[in-house]
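Subject: sequence -> structure tokens, single chain

Hey, anyone have a minute? Need the predicted structure for the following. Not urgent.
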Amino acid sequence: MSEELVLLNVEDRIATVTLNAPEVLNALSTEMVRQLSVAVSKAARDDTVRCLLINAAGRGFCAGANLQARGQGSEVTPAGSALETHYAPLMNKLRNLSFPVVTAVNGPAAGVGMSLALTGDIVIAGESAYFLQAFAKIGLIPDGGATWYLPRLIGWGRAMELSLLAERLPAPQALEWGLINRVVPDETLQDEARTMAARLAGGPMSLGLIRKAYWASWENDFNKQMQLEADLQNEAHASADNREGVAAFLEKRAPSFTGR
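Reply:
Had a minute. Here:
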């Protein structure tokens, strides 16, 4: 039986996925990425789940790829192969989820670990957390979608700065740059992230449609995006949650959404 490098717990409509290799600061081996992908797939298939929370055991979120697990020598598999076979499928699964994603970032989020952290629709970091595009330090290029995420989130100049200089970006500065959503005291990070996940899990099914619309906006022209809005709005309008939301508004009470 393989070691549990990723833990999955489903409770109160929240699927919590925990990176569980604290002895290596949750550095990702291909086996760990495989387990993470399996956990995300299980959450996606669970009709009770309405939010995914990604966090990490120990004192760091993810130190990047596990270089020791990759090995050394002439027979080493090219790094790009793992991107094609493991990382790209995982990132696409996360992108295509029908419910929101929250990431709770403690300590370092480096290399591909930074890319994983940024898959959150809401990214919450502890005060001591930092982000690091470490690739240039070992003669590689940013991956895990970083070259796509970063210029869109923080602009060309800052993306280049992070990638070429490979310097730490402390959580407060990441917040200032608009890279993440919130910075909280380290000791309350998990509680704050859980509270946020619970808030999203209690929201309407249209939250999943909102993230679908925003993801599509990166590729659509204006007219295509307007049409997508119309299509998704029709889908949202037909939902029980829309009917409940309107009724609650008219009756001046809090809505009780079911995710349908």
